[in-house]
Amino acid sequence: MYKTIYKASVISFTKYGAALSHTIKNILRQNNCHATLYTAKKDFKHQDIQNITCPLNKWAGIHFKEDDIIIFIGACGIAVRSIAPFIQSKCTDPAVIVTDDMGQNIISLLSGHLGKANEWTKILAAAIHANPVITTSSDIHGKIAIDLFALQNNLYIDNMENARRIQAAIIENKPVAIYSDAEVKGIIPENFFINNIKSSYNCIDTDYNIIISPFTAFKETRQFKNNQTLHLIPRVITLGTGCRKNKTYNEITSFINKTLKSAQISIHAISDIATIDIKKNETGITMFAENNSLPLLFYSAAELETITESVSPSSFVKQTTGTDNICERAALMPQGEKELILTKQAENGITVAAAIKKWSINFE
Question: Which of 151, 276, 294, 310 is the most buried (most CB within 10 A)?
Answer without folding.
Answer: 276
